[in-house]
Amino acid sequence: MKNQNAWITIVVVGLLVSMAAQTALAAPVSVVGGLTREATLQPGAKTEGRIVLRNSTDQPQEVKVYQTDYLFWADGRNQYGEPGSTPRSNARWIVHTPQQLTVPPRATESVYYTIQVPAQEDLRGTYWSMLMVEPISAETLEPPKPEEGKVTIGIRSVMRYAIQIVTHIGDTGTRDLKFADKQLLVEEGKPTLRLDLENTGERWLRPLIWAELYDQQGLSLGRFEGGRFRIYPGCSVRYHIDLSEVPAGKYRALIVADNGDEYVFGAQYDLDLREEGQ
Question: Which pLDDT band, with edges at 50, 70 and 90, does 185 fall under?
Fold first, then answer.
């Protein structure tokens, strides 16, 4: 068998997606502003928006823009499905243009989108999907020529932005939160209460989690926070509460998930903190 020329590219993809806070990281083409675009609409209503892209290099940058669905779970899994494939996807309500563009050096260009909510009376709660913004590298457009009789392997790094397009149907939709799992364990040498929370309602939640600990005499040891994350319906998030300042002993823990409005959820657990090696 004769040797044949071949060019193999290994693509390493980095995804910039905001969960709790919107952050813009360094990349040749960046998104100006937050990575979540949120609108509250009624069935049949329409809204428009735009996404501004900035080229921070001295060369023109080719960019493609495409849609995906998005789900995530407490165990770290993420799913970027076909647009419109999940029950609460709004991808089919969205039209964006252009699908591919060139951003001039040290300049900006815009991607425009329209959201048209169907006139369906049974729509309730929160619907969402992603617009992916991905630079197209020069290596993709013009791959290097392989040497005669050799297999050439190239590594290409791709940094793409995932912009969450969120539609709330008025103030509708149930708000329900399930305390799905709890574990008391040691993480990085620190005793930690790990909690998995699942949104079992119809509308997104952004609960701030904390634990109030009480000793066996009923005295409070204080409040220990675990942060705030966005949880879409059908998705789940893992919280970590650092208990390294709590002495060994048995405690009653009141867990509070405060959504920042009239919706507050809670659970109660018994904890047994022990010295390492016990």
Answer: very high
Determine, yes or no, domain membership for 27: yes
CA atoms within 13 A of residue 251's CA, in its CB half-sphere: 23
Do residues 35 and 109 lie in contact, with contact meaning Cβ atoms separated by under 8 Å? no
CATH code at 241? 2.60.40.10
| CB burial of residue 257 (10 Å; 0-12, 13-18, 19+) | buried
Q: How far is CA 22 from CA 16, 84, 99, 153, 277, in A?
A: 10, 24, 24, 36, 41
Helix (H, G, I), strand (E, B) or coil at 93: helix
Q: Are residues 139 and 13 located together in one domain of the fold? A: yes
pLDDT bucket at 119, cuts 50 / 70 / 90: very high
Q: What is the per-residue pLDDT for 275?
A: 74
CB-based contacts of 207, cutoff 8 Å, min separation 6: 177, 197, 228, 229, 231, 257, 258, 259, 260, 265
Containing domain of residue 269, as a range?
177-273
Answer yes or no: do 98 and 36 share one domain: yes
**pLDDT recorded at residue 199:** 98
